[in-house]
Amino acid sequence: MVYHEIVKSDPLKLIISIAGCFLAAVIGSVATTPNIPIWYEFLSKPPLTPPNWIFGPVWTLLFFLMAVAAWLIWRKGLAEPNVKDALSIFIVQLVLNILWSVSFFGIRMPIFGFLVIIGLWFAILITIIRFFRLDNIAGWLMVPYILWVSFAAYLNLGVVILNR
Fold first, then answer.
1. What is the CATH number of domain 10-46+58-162?
2. Closest by Cα among 58, 60, 51, 53 to 24
3. Nearest-CA neighbor of 120 among 139, 96, 86?
4. What is the C-alpha to C-alpha distance for residues 97 and 125, in angstroms, rounded to an integer?
5. pLDDT tens digit sequence for 20-57
6. Greatest Cα-to-Cα distance within the chain, rounded to the nearest angstrom
7. How many whole angstroms separate alpha carbon 85 and alpha carbon 136?
8. 98: number of Cβ within 10 Å
9. How far apart are CA 126 and CA 21, in angstroms?
10. pLDDT at 112
11. Separation of alpha carbons 93 and 119, rounded Å
12. 32 contacts 98 by C-beta, under 8 angstroms
């Protein structure tokens, strides 16, 4: 199927998937953004911590990839076996993503953020496995996300250790 044909097949579901993922991004950024210059900037950070400007573009790309992956699964139809379960765990990982931002930045508790990010990592892994069972492209679209969250877990743990 050509790209145009794919998008034409379920544009409303694509729009809702993108809107839902970016709503999660906006909620997370409300907790994150104000605390970067007044708190995060002054924390000791582990080696390999990227500059702050990297995080916005990376997360934007990741949320877009997540949205497309969810859309690929959703367009199979909720009557299709395992689609509801796959999308349910996808929603759980979105909620955990928001909870991580609130934990780490919003309430400034990196240790709680680390516990949440471990749960988030496993929820993403389960999402990837379930997505692969339904659509290989959807599964692969989630792989950069788990890689980035793995790196974020390292950064989070580094902040916990260095700022005791």
1. 1.20.1260.100
2. 60
3. 96
4. 13
5. 999 999 999 999 999 999 999 999 999 999 999 999 99
6. 54
7. 17
8. 21
9. 18
10. 98
11. 8
12. no
Kindly report, residue by residue over 115-130, the tens digit of the pLDDT.
999 999 999 999 999 9
One DSSP character per residue, 24-76 reads HHHHHHHHHTTHHHHTGGGS---TTPPPHHHHHHHHHHHHHHHHHHHHHHHTT
Neighbour tally for 149: CB within 10 Å: 23
Give 73's pLDDT tier (boundaries 50, 70, 90): very high
Q: How many CB atoms lie within 10 A of CB 143?
A: 15
Shortest CA distance to 141 belongs to which of 17, 16, 2?
Answer: 17
The two structure tokens encoding residue 164: 């005791």
Do you know the residue count of the chain?
A: 164
Exposure b/e, 113-135, CB count within 10 A at least 16 = b: bbebbbebbebbebbbebbbebb
Instruction: With beta carbons less than 8 A apart as the criterion, state whether 14 and 7 touch.
Output: yes
CB 104 within 8 A of CB 53: no
